[in-house]
Design a protein that fits this description.
mainly alpha; Rhopdopsin 7-helix transmembrane proteins; 12 helices; globular; transducer; G-protein coupled receptor; transmembrane helix; transmembrane; Olfact_rcpt
């Protein structure tokens, strides 16, 4: 006869939807389906505009295209579990699928952080060293930066992701969110998780936290350079080129900080709060970034207006 824990250690996990709101899933699914549709359409539109408009073939817009692609992939990596729960298709997910989703969610977050840092470097170079902008950010240099960002996000997380496959999950397989996260799987494991815990903490410090610090430092130099400009109009013009990027940074880091605070200090809060914060962390940046850059970036805004007017005509 197998031990009682054998059944618990099955390879199927149960995702949490919206606790206590199961009867409202058909209504809740409407805004979530609309948000995912806007994520896909908005980011695809940004990619299409950058691809088809020769004047946008510049380093800043290459980084923006990578940001849009990252946001698009983030939506694709979670849509099947989030809407699967709300459409009452399935709340279960296998271990291998859960580990794969964990890899993409955390890897894409690391990618987005790296892209935002690259965009900060672009703005720093354009404002603080404008005469050398084209010689510093050549096409070859941009390709090197992009490859470095992708290699960092895809390889650095592999050691902890691979170990998840070999853990013994003896606790009830109920996950805290509508998608899989590394810390959520660790909570269910009865194996030695010290390496994963320490490595994940070091990874967050060396990627997300370090990127945030470098972004802040870059803007300190940018602000110092802008304040040295005599003309008020020129100062405003220089700062306006940074507004979209600053908004994108806030849209990315505020949900991460909020989710971290809820996980760390909000254990007494309703599970619904944890689920909502998790979905905001996943969906808010991919939803807002296309809106921010469509509204705040003159080149993209004018190109979209022209494109839509031709379509309507």
């Amino acid at each position: 006869m197998s031990p009682p824990s054998a059944s618990i250690n099955s390879s199927v996990f149960v995702l949490t939807g919206f606790p206590g709101l199961q009867q409202y899933y058909p209504w809740i699914s409407i805004p979530f389906s609309s948000i995912y549709a806007m994520v896909f359409l908005g980011n695809c539109m940004v990619l299409h505009v950058i691809r088809t408009e020769p004047s946008l073939h510049q380093p800043m817009f290459y980084f923006l295209a990578l940001l849009a692609l990252t946001d698009l992939c983030m939506g694709l990596s979670t849509v099947h579990t989030v809407l699967g729960i709300l459409w009452e298709i399935s709340q279960n997910i296998g271990l291998d699928a859960c580990i794969a989703q964990t890899y993409f969610v955390h890897g894409l977050s690391c990618t987005e952080s790296g892209v935002l840092l690259a965009m900060a470097f672009d703005r720093f170079t354009a404002i603080c060293n404008p005469l050398r902008y084209t010689t510093i950010l050549t096409n070859g240099r941009v390709i090197q930066i992009v490859i470095t960002i992708l290699m960092r996000s895809t390889l650095s997380i592999l050691p902890v992701i691979i170990r998840l496959k070999f853990f013994y999950y003896c606790r009830p397989h109920f996950l805290s969110h509508s998608f899989c996260l590394h810390q959520d799987l660790l909570r269910l494991a009865c194996s030695d998780i010290r390496f994963n815990s320490f490595y994940a903490l070091a990874l967050v410090i060396c990627t997300l936290l370090l990127d945030a610090v470098l972004i802040i430092i870059s803007y300190i130099f940018i602000l110092h350079t802008v304040l040295a400009i005599a003309s008020r109009e020129e100062r405003l013009k220089s700062l306006q080129t940074c507004v979209s990027h600053i908004c994108a940074v806030l849209v990315f880091y505020i949900p991460i900080i909020g989710l971290t605070m809820v996980h760390r200090f909000g254990k007494h809060l309703s599970p619904l709060v944890h689920v909502l914060m998790g979905n905001i962390y996943i969906l808010f940046p991919p939803l807002m970034n296309p809106i921010i850059y469509s509204v705040k970036t003159q080149q993209i805004r004018s190109r979209m207006k022209k494109w839509f007017s031709l379509k309507l005509y």
